[in-house]
Amino acid sequence: MKYTLIALGVLLALGIAWYGLSPLFITIKVDDALPATAVLMAQTAPVIGTVGHPAEGSAVIIEADGRQYLRYENFKTLNGPDLYVYLAKTPNAKEYVDLGLLRATEGNVNYEIPDGVDPKEYPYALVWCKQFGVLFNSAKLY
User: If you average pLDDT over every residue of the chain, what do you get?
Assistant: First the structure.
């Protein structure tokens, strides 16, 4: 009976660990097309990872068909829980515009910028973990 309880405890601990850590190992690849009418609105900036969260690729603001987008190109980052994409005034995301959940950890990805938001007022593109308050990567667009 004692060993059964120990085995169940170990299995429970492994299950909780897998549930908590498995998103880190999942790759989500997206390849959004660059609209034919796209116009670059900002400099193309390298995506910079943080300690423990390597990243690569570039980010840029584009305009297409009257809409503005944050576009990540050749993007690659780690996955994690509760990751969101922001445009922010500073790298610490005190004032930001939420562009939604991270849609991909790899590829070319477009995030629509809401109407009335001037990206020049929010020069940083950030991937931020809401759950732990951790910056995964950033790019300075302006």
Answer: 87
Q: CB under 8 Å, gap of 24 or more: what pairs does 2-6 form?
A: none
Please report which helix (H) or strand (E) contains residue 17, including its range: helix 2-21
Note the pLDDT tens digit of each residue in 4-13.
Answer: 767 666 766 6
Question: Domain residues of the chain, as ranges?
Answer: 29-140
- For the record, the structure tokens of 141 come out as 């667009």
In angstroms, the CA 95 to CA 6 distance is: 49
The 3-class SS string of 38-98 reads CEECCCCEECEEECCECEEEEEEEEEECCEEEEEEEEEEECCCCCEEEEEECCCCCCCEEE
